[in-house]
TrEMBL record:
Residue ranges constituting the VanZ-like domain according to the UniProt record: 14-91
PANTHER family, alphabetized: DOMAIN PROTEIN, PUTATIVE (AFU_ORTHOLOGUE AFUA_3G10980)-RELATED
Signal peptide limits: none
Lineage: Bacteria, Pseudomonadati, Bacteroidota, Cytophagia, Cytophagales
Top-level lineage group: Bacteria
This protein's UniProt keywords: Membrane, Transmembrane, Transmembrane helix
Protein name: Putative integral membrane protein
Amino acid sequence: MSGKAIPQFSFSSLFQIDKLVHFTLFFVLSWLLVKSFNVQNSYPALKVNTIRKAFLISFLYGFTLECLQYFVPDRNFDLLDIIANTAGTFFPLIFIKKKSSAEKV
């Protein structure tokens, strides 16, 4: 196995514009999932553990899309995209959790 087969990683690659786009899109997705689960009345089960459900749905969606890109010509699997997706999924949920905890006090 040659050294060229090992993927190169640089810390600066975490802060590329496409990673910011991934982060932003998944931030919005998670935020909207939680808000829509709480507003709707058709499926009461969605109002329970909304943060966990939103995280799971958003994470699995992002992970699946990245894995599928491996099989599409001219596309590639990128672990940093998954990290950006997951971070974008996670951060709004922290804010929502803190806000809901503050409102209960």
